[in-house]
Design brief:
With about 1850 residues, this protein is mostly beta strands. The chain contains 3 helices and 146 strands.
């Protein structure tokens, strides 16, 4: 709290001195805009009293702060603005109280202006103006302003009117306007008292106003700071340096920037467009002083850098490129055949020497604020605050520092750190209490781009509480808003402001603290950021990577060999084609760093695998793999075969086929093993039924041959047919979700049936079954299933009868198709096409298939039995109607825009419409045509057809003509009398007229106007209409103005140089000017003329003209005369009494006078001076002034010397022996002598030394001068004597501070003094000692020596004890007027005394306790607070309705704090009309006004609303609006609020809550509308003739249709809305018309096998549409498109189908099995060539996937079927190798042994069986019978046993371990 206590001492300080910038006003409220007395200044309340600025009358000593004196005293004050012309001033009615009463004292309480620097020269000024009407040239009526100064010297008046003898400034009369008074002074103390008074006490005049007080310090020494903005991008050259001059004499004349550029000057200090470099900046102020900052650096931005880790690499090697300085990066490479890298650190492997180039466009934020984190200290910004470094020792306000620790800078600040990192610098500020918060805390200017958005952020923290700073950010003079600093200390808060630069190119950013509180208001700012985003395209960088020793290593894989053969990878053929001269080595690891093969080993590789060849050329090398295959005998897989194959007896046999691996050769055999291979694939004989042939085939790869695959071919002649049917009785689902198909079985054995089915035409599901039935599940009610039997395995003779299809459905109910088909069509119109799809989605055919347009008929729809088995038949009757007839149109075919004409028709019932409503509109019912714009259009008359007949339309043209316009008028609308103006129009051909020819006439043709008299006239321009259109007119007013009058001028026409005269005019509002300001100037508004130089000049008075009149000027001459001179005076200035001398002047014609004829006289004309008596007299020479100039005088002094006289001697006549004294004479220049040197000697200067006791005579003689003789000697005796004694001292030696005692001596006549007056002072004569402070002082008594002897002294000490401060208990506050208890006369610490002043129970008062005399105690002060009595406040009550619920009167007032109490009467009575007064009685104990508060509550009567009944109206028409105010003024709301136009009902009016009224109910009746009864229009086909809509319904309702015509171009069901005419009370009617879309014939796409026979294309579609095909027949060798064109008369579309000719693609198949012993054995079936196939495993269902999961161990049969049916199915066996998981050796002949049967063909395979302890139990072979569960003939127990099997898979030896279970 120390800091804040210190601040409290500065409450009187109204200024602080800032030496950081130009001088500013150090006074607060010097312009009186912030308040009155006590706000920056103080007025002596003794003799000056404030009054209302509008009091109307004042007395001496009244004052007010106002903007106009006149309302203060309307009789005696002039009207005036303040000095600025817009604000306030202090107006004073001069006091008549003497004593120089102060009307203005600096400081809130008059304590002065503080914070000044001793020794500096300050300037104090203010403006003053006389405002009293009674002020004349008489001095007594003019204010005489004086200033009392304290703690100041060298006070000098530098500007102000002539001074009086007392040194007071005279205020001239009101006509002289505002006058400035300016003083300079030097403080001798930090606080200077400045007090202003009016020394004139005259009541006449002596009234004045003061304004714009100012106190300014001298400017600080000139210094310079700057801010820089770095380049936005490299090579941008857009850096800036902004210089800021500080101190010196402003304005700053020039800034100069030099260094990296030639010296450049600027008057703003802003230098832009700078390149990187080192600069020097200087500033020169208005006094010519120059300072400089050197070494200012704008750095060069860093660009891209690019390096390669290894710039030279071998071919095939890589290196890493590193890019930095940008990002993201884009790359290019040359040559462009190389791979383009990416990222910042790409790895590249060029095949040839390549150059890589990196580019980058960066988008980075950039802070434009220089030193925004204050890292550089106190640079880069300006401030109106004073900079203190390293601390603020006096806790000065309006101060700042740039520091790291706030507490170290100012005592009382919290130990807060910077925001950047907690260790750096920040700007700390002790807030300003002056200048209304308009002092800049921090300012910096930065460059900006026009039209961009910027964001300013900064961090703010509070350093001391309370009252946080209020920061206002201002950019280019515009505030962005204020933000409060945090309410807690040392807490940084980030603040953000947004700003758009507009057209600005620079932004001056300034922070202001708008808080001026002295307590708290301390803060810190840091990390100021004003961000822009720099988008920079950086110069690219390149690096070249050199590739040496390019190696081309070609690997030609060696052929596979069969063991025990080996592969030689060192053969030249393996690397043939490689670069010559390579050194080759051979390796088994990919990196070729370990496991190198010897040359011999590489030449005889016996194991399959991947090996590596390393080629070396110089320092470069390259490694590539080589695959080696060494197959074990018997490991080549089997070829792919299909088995069994069934052929029909007698059919043509073809060679058996098998599929070999790529590069393999097939070998055909008749035996399973051994024998010689056949010459080619065998051809079985089909001659004998029942024959079975077995063939074998292997494949050879290299020297290895696979095992032989078996192909069995069977021959039979089995035939038969299949009949399919649905069997619902065998459906197994409940509810039914399946269908059941059944068919007869084929003899003699159940074959495998291959099938597919679809549900409702969905995707096909394929499968196989050996049953003659199939239940299909997932069939929803209403769905159908089509089952197709594709083939029957083993029945080749009936293969051609397949596929066979049948459809079953799941139906529980029948669905009726729905259609929108017209019931009637127009005779002869295009008949509608019957849709083959119902509106509810059912397809089918019609009978008859087409509709007749001449004869009515009934048509039957038959649903598609397959797609819609659950649909029923539908019938529709269609009749034939006759078309309407058309009439003849009549009516006038010409009409004007905005006018009408009427068309009519000989045929009724039609509707009218316009083909172009932009030209003309027509009433659809009446035919009334309205012209809209010029042009010609057709009016259509439409008669609607009925029964499907189209509308009939007839047309008649109408021409619309545009009306005439008078155009836009132009011309000068203000002229002077006698002048002319010309009006014109944008349209020619019209005539002009004037509304008042006495004021102005106008030429009818030319539009020329003559001004005659002052006034306004209207000019009318008329253009005749054509084509029946009326005349068009346009008007324009003109004002005629009279000439201005400048009046008659008056005023004294002579004036002296430097003096003034006042001119005036009889006409007000003019402006004064001088024809030659070098001779005389004139105040433009007052006419005050000031003489400048001799001569005559014209003073002009100009009154401005108005309304087109020019100005008028009158003139009056004024003659300016030069003042006269008295010249230079000369002559002898020293004479003797009685002598004469002659004086003269360089200017003749003057007269002489003497200031003292008693000393010297002078001849008036000749200048002869005569000495009369000794002394000095002034001789004045006067020359009379001319032309109003004052007389000129000059003076010279004359000294008159008397006859010499020794004068009168003086000097101490008594001295001590050995001491001295000095005699002197009233006349100097004489000689001294003594009568007795033995007693006393005397020197030439009169110094006498005592030699011995006695008396001597001293003589003095003066020689004569100026011709006078020597004087008569003067004498004086001197007595020589002996020294004195001071005696013995006595008196009380102990007293209190502020009390006294008296010392005395035994020797009288001495003087007293104190060794320490600050502790005790003593009266020099009486010895009275006064205690001043605690301590001990020595009192000295001095006896003055006599006869010239030295003083004698004696001493005695006195002790001064301190005073005790009396203490008292505080007195509780009371209410004004309550009784106060007398104050205690003894303090709580025992001090007795009395109180002053007497107790006051009406005002808060400070009381002083005066201790009893003699006690060592001080006075004490006690303040008793007297609270004012509060008037309870309550809100007003609105008038209440009679009989309403009374409101409760509030018992708590609206004051804060609230006042409680009761009311009288206590409750509100609403029963009686009138106003009742309720009085509030406050509860006792509250400080409440003695005047009781009352409320008036008025009770008003209840009204009955008088709304009129509402006339019934038609349903749907516009309902009347319910007014919310009744005719008798009742306001309220309705329920419902809006009248329904559909339903009759009652409407309740409820008055508003503030209305005293009852409800009212209105009944509203709605007349129901008639429904038009149009007949339905039958559906018709799209494109046929549309029916016509009738405009009159069968029940007589007339109206119009929307759309008006039925559209036959779009299919669908469309609404046509009939709108009854406005005169009809009928409803709209919607008629739905169906336009049928032409049907799609619905032919399916077809597919056939190559060259198979194809059926003819059907000429009738599935939905009954007949037509023809192109091409007409199917080509069975080429796929093609075929177009079906419906026959004429069919309502159908053409259709194109695709016929696909499928090839025979299935050649061979193979089965691939996953590795042996895997948990999930997967068989993948491969087919050759590609095609659309189905796959089967072990005669199971066919499937589209060629993958079979979880295959069991053993041999499986796989089968591939051509889904297109164009290729024969192929089969083959596939072996799945796995082991049994358990066996049961219990001699039941089932599962009695354990073996791995899948390896039985591997003769070398071995199986080792172990128990759980690892003991070998048995070794078996897969080709054997297996293990029976015994060991040495003994059965082993049930347990898990382990096995190890050694086998070969894919020509590689492998092992497998697992376990199985033995179960007994």
């Amino acid at each position: 709290m120390t800091h804040k206590i210190i601040k409290a001492f500065f409450i009187l300080v109204v200024i602080t001195t800032s030496l950081t910038g130009s001088s500013q006003n150090l006074l607060s409220n010097g312009d009186f805009e912030s308040g009155g007395n006590g706000v920056g200044f103080n007025i002596n309340s003794c003799c000056y009293n404030a009054v209302s600025p509008t009091s109307g009358n004042t007395i001496p000593g009244n004052y007010a702060v106002t903007n106009n004196p006149l309302p203060m005293n309307t009789l005696n004050f002039y009207a005036s603005t303040d000095h600025s012309g817009t604000g306030n001033m202090l107006v004073v009615d001069g006091t008549n109280t003497g004593g120089q009463q102060r009307f203005w004292r600096a400081g809130n309480s008059g304590g002065g202006a503080c914070g000044l620097t001793v020794g500096l020269t300050y300037t104090f000024s203010f403006w003053i103006k006389s405002i009293g009407i009674g002020v004349t040239n008489v001095l007594g009526t003019k204010p005489q302003i004086g200033i009392a100064w304290n703690n100041a010297n060298n006070v000098t008046l530098t500007s102000g009117n002539a001074l009086t003898a007392g040194g007071y400034v005279i205020v001239e009369p009101n006509a002289f306007g505002w006058q400035q008074i300016v003083y300079t002074f030097r403080p001798t103390n930090a606080c200077v008292n400045i007090e202003i008074f009016d020394d004139n006490t005259n009541q006449a005049g002596n009234d004045f106003a003061v304004d714009d007080f100012s106190l300014t310090a001298p400017p600080a020494p000139l210094s310079l700071t700057y801010s820089i903005t770095n380049l936005s991008c490299i090579n941008a050259n857009d850096g800036t340096i902004f210089g800021y001059g500080i101190g010196g004499t402003q304005p700053y004349v020039n800034y100069t920037l030099s260094g990296a550029i030639p010296a450049t000057n600027s008057n703003t200090g802003f230098f832009t467009g700078l390149a990187p470099g080192t600069y020097n900046l200087s500033v020169t102020d208005n006094a010519g002083t120059t300072v400089q900052q050197t070494g200012i650096i704008i750095p060069t931005p860093t660009g891209l850098t690019l390096t390669a880790a290894n710039p030279t690499i071998c071919a095939g090697a890589s290196t890493t490129l590193t890019a930095s300085g940008g990002g993201p990066y884009t790359w290019t490479v040359s040559p462009n055949t190389e791979t383009v890298p990416s990222g910042a650190n790409p790895t590249v492997s060029p095949s040839v020497t390549a150059t890589y180039t990196v580019n980058s466009t960066t988008v980075t934020p950039n802070n434009l604020v220089y030193n925004g984190d204050f890292f550089l200290g106190n640079v880069g910004f300006t401030s109106d605050y004073t900079y203190y470094n390293p601390n603020n020792p006096t806790n000065a306000q309006k101060a700042y520092g740039v520091v790291t620790d706030a507490e170290a800078w100012e005592v009382g600040f919290q130990p807060c750190n910077d925001h950047t990192n907690g260790l750096g610098r920040m700007m700390v500020i002790d807030g300003s209490t002056v200048n209304g918060g308009n002092d800049k805390v921090w300012c910096q200017t930065v460059p900006v781009n026009p039209g961009q958005n910027y964001t300013l952020t900064y961090w703010l923290q509070t350093l001391a509480l309370p009252s946080p700073a209020n920061i206002d950010v201002v950019i280019n003079g515009v505030s962005l808003g204020t933000s409060l600093a945090p309410n807690t200390t040392c807490t940084w808060s980030q603040l953000t402001q947004s700003w758009n630069s507009g057209i600005s190119t620079t932004a001056q950013i300034c922070f202001y603290n708008r808080n001026t509180a002295s307590n708290g208001n301390d803060f810190a700012i840091d990390d100021i950021v004003f961000a822009r985003v720099n988008t920079c395209t950086l110069p690219p960088k390149s690096v070249t990577v050199t590739v040496t020793n390019t190696i081309n290593l070609v690997i030609n894989p060696p052929a596979a060999v069969c063991a025990p053969n080996t592969v030689n990878i060192t053969l030249p053929a393996v690397t043939a084609g490689s670069t010559a001269g390579l050194t080759l080595t051979y390796w088994s690891d990919p990196a070729a760093t370990v496991n190198q093969l010897s040359f011999a080993s590489a030449g005889a590789i016996a194991t399959s695998g991947t090996y590596y060849i390393k080629a070396t050329l110089g320092t470069c090398s390259l490694v590539k793999p080589v695959a080696v295959t060494v197959s074990a005998s018997g490991t080549v897989p089997l070829p792919t075969v299909v088995s069994p194959i069934f052929l029909c007896q007698g059919s043509t046999a073809t060679p058996i086929t098998a599929t070999a691996l790529p590069g393999a050769t097939l070998n055909w055999y008749a035996n399973a093993s051994g024998g010689t291979a056949l010459s080619g694939p065998p051809i079985p004989s089909t001659a004998i039924n029942g024959d079975v042939f077995t063939y074998y085939v292997s494949q050879t790869i290299g020297t290895c041959e696979s095992l032989r695959a078996v192909i069995v071919v069977g021959i039979n002649n089995i035939s038969g047919t299949i009949t399919m049917f649905c069997d619902p009785s065998r459906v197994s689902t409940t509810p039914v979700t399946s269908v059941f198909f059944d068919w007869n079985n084929l003899p003699p054995n159940p074959p495998i049936y291959n099938y597919s089915y679809t549900i409702n035409g969905g995707p096909a599901v394929i499968g196989s079954t050996n049953l003659s039935s199939l239940e299909v599940f997932g069939v929803l009610p209403g769905q159908s299933v089509t089952l197709t039997i594709l083939s029957a395995t083993g029945y080749p003779c009936i293969a051609s009868s397949f596929p066979i299809s049948y459809t079953c459905n799941n139906c529980s109910t029948l669905t009726v198709p729905t259609f929108t088909i017209p019931s009637s069509i127009c005779s002869g119109s295009v008949a509608p096409v019957l849709p083959t799809t119902s509106t509810n989605g059912i397809t089918g055919t019609w009978s008859p298939a087409t509709v007749s347009n001449t004869v009515g008929n009934t048509y039957t729809f038959n649903p598609d039995p397959i797609l819609f088995p659950c649909a029923d038949q539908y019938t529709k009757a269609i009749t034939i109607a006759n078309p309407p007839t058309v009439g003849v149109l009549n009516g006038n075919q010409n009409v004007c825009v905005g006018l009408t004409t009427t068309f009519s028709s000989t045929s009724s019932g039609g509707t009218w419409s316009s083909q172009n409503t932009a030209i003309a509109t027509v009433n659809s019912a009446t035919g009334v045509i309205t012209g809209v714009s010029s042009g010609t259009t057709s009016i259509d008359y439409t008669i609607l057809g009925t029964g499907g007949c189209s509308n009939v339309i007839i047309s008649r043209s109408v021409t619309v003509t545009s009306p005439i316009v008078a155009g836009t008028l132009n011309g000068n609308q203000a002229i002077c009398i006698g002048q002319t103006s010309t009006f014109s129009s944008t349209v020619s051909g019209g005539t002009w007229t004037s509304s008042n020819n006495a004021i102005a006439t106008i030429n009818a043709a030319s539009g020329v106007i003559n001004g005659l008299t002052a006034g306004n006239a209207t000019m009318t321009y008329s253009v005749a209409g054509t084509g029946g259109c009326p005349i068009a007119t346009s008007t324009r007013t003109i004002t005629i103005t009279a000439l201005p009058n400048a009046g008659t001028l008056s005023g004294t026409p002579n004036v002296c140089v430097g003096l003034t005269t006042l001119y005036s005019s009889t006409s007000p509002s003019g402006t004064w000017s001088s024809a030659n300001p070098a001779i005389a100037t004139v105040n433009a508004s007052t006419g005050l003329v000031t003489g400048i130089s001799s001569g005559t000049v014209s003073i002009d008075y100009t009154v401005a003209g108005t309304g087109g009149c020019g100005p008028v000027t009158v003139s009056r001459a004024v003659t300016v005369s030069n003042p006269v001179s008295a010249g230079s005076l000369a002559g002898n200035q020293a004479i003797c009494v009685g002598n004469i001398t002659n004086l003269n002047s360089t200017i003749a014609g003057g007269t002489w006078s003497s200031s003292s004829n008693a000393i010297a006289t002078i001849n008036t004309n000749s200048g002869v001076v005569t000495g009369v008596s000794a002394g000095t007299a002034t001789m004045t020479y006067t020359v009379t002034g001319l032309g109003g100039c004052p007389n000129a005088t000059n003076a010279i002094s004359i000294t008159v010397t008397a006859i010499p006289n020794a004068g009168t001697l003086s000097g101490t006549q008594a001295i001590c022996v050995g001491l001295s004294t000095t005699f002197s004479s009233t006349v100097a220049g004489g000689t001294w002598s003594t009568s007795n040197p033995a007693i006393a000697t005397v020197s030439a200067t009169g110094n006498i030394i005592g030699i011995a006791a006695g008396v001597a005579t001293i003589s003095y003689i003066v020689n004569g001068t100026g011709g006078c003789p020597a004087s008569v000697p003067a004498t004086r005796n001197v007595t020589v004597s002996a020294p004195q004694s001071a005696g013995i001292l006595s008196g009380t030696q102990t007293i209190c501070v502020g009390s006294s005692t008296t010392f005395s001596s035994t020797v009288l006549g001495g003087n007293w003094e104190s060794s320490n007056p600050t502790i005790a002072s003593v009266n020099a004569t009486t010895g009275l000692i006064t205690g001043n402070a605690n301590g001990i002082a020595t009192i000295r008594y001095i006896i003055t020596g006599t006869g010239g002897c030295s003083d004698a002294d004696a001493t005695r000490t006195v002790t001064v004890n301190p005073n005790i401060v009396p203490t008292f208990n505080a007195v509780a506050p009371i209410c004004s007027g309550n009784t106060l208890t007398p104050l205690p006369l003894t303090s709580t610490n025992g001090i007795t005394g009395t109180w002053n002043p007497p107790l006051d129970n009406t005002n808060t008062t400070e009381y002083t306790f005066i201790p009893t005399a003699g006690l060592c105690a001080t006075t004490a002060r006690l303040t008793i607070t007297v609270n004012p009595r509060i008037v309870p406040l309550f809100g007003l009550f609105a008038p209440l309705c009679q009989g309403s619920t009374p409101p409760v009167l509030p018992t708590n007032s609206d004051n804060t704090p609230t006042i409680t109490g009761t009311w009288n009467p206590p409750t509100v009575n609403t029963a009686s009309l009138g106003t009742t007064i309720y009085t509030f009685n406050p509860t006792a104990g509250q400080c409440v006004s003695n005047t009781l508060t009352t409320l008036s509550i008025t009770i008003v009567p209840v009204l009955t609303p008088n709304f009129q009944p509402i006339v019934p109206f038609c349903d749907g028409t516009s309902a009347p609006t319910l007014s919310n105010t009744s005719p008798n003024g009742v306001e309220g709301t309705w329920s419902p609020a809006i009248i329904s136009n559909a339903l009759s009902g009652n409407y309740l009016f409820t008055p508003n809550p503030d209305q005293c009224a009852v409800t009212q109910t209105l009944s509203v009746t709605i007349i129901p509308r008639t429904v038009p009864d149009f007949a339905a229009i039958p559906p018709f086909c799209k494109g046929t003739t549309a029916p016509i809509l009738d405009l009159t319904s069968p029940n007589g309702i007339t109206g119009t249709w929307s759309p008006a015509l039925v559209d036959n171009t779009v299919s669908g069901i469309f609404p046509y809305v009939f709108t009854p005419d406005a005169t009809e009370c009928a409803t709209q009617y919607t008629l739905y018309v169906e336009v049928i879309e032409p049907a799609n014939p619905g032919f399916p796409d077809l597919a056939f096998c190559f060259q198979n026979s194809t059926p003819p294309l059907p000429t009738i579609s599935p939905n009954g549409i007949s037509g023809t095909w192109l091409p007409a027949t199917i080509d069975n060798e080429v796929s093609a498109a075929y177009e079906f064109t419906p026959d004429a008369g069919e309502c159908a579309l053409s259709q194109t189908i695709n016929v696909t000719i499928n090839q025979y693609t299935l050649i061979a198949i193979d089965g691939v099995v996953t590795n042996y012993f895997e948990e999930n054995q997967v068989i993948t079936v491969l087919a050759t060539d590609s095609g659309n196939y189905l796959y089967q495993l072990d005669y199971g269902p066919l499937q589209q996937s060629n993958v079979f999961q979880n295959a069991s161990p053993g041999t499986h049969v796989i089968k591939v079927v051509d889904a297109n049916g164009c290729s024969s199915p192929l089969t083959r066996d596939v072996l799945v190798v796995n082991y049994p998981k358990f066996f049961t050796p219990n001699d039941d002949t089932y599962n009695d042994t354990w073996n791995i049967s899948g390896l039985q063909e591997q003769k070398d395979a071995k199986i080792f069986i172990f128990d759980r302890y690892g003991k070998l139990i048995k070794q078996i072979y897969p080709s054997g019978k297996g293990w029976d569960g015994t060991f040495n003939g003994e059965p082993l127990p049930s347990d898990d046993y382990w096995f190890l099997v050694e086998f070969t898979e894919n020509f590689q030896s492998k092992e497998f371990k697992a376990h199985f279970s033995l179960k007994r």
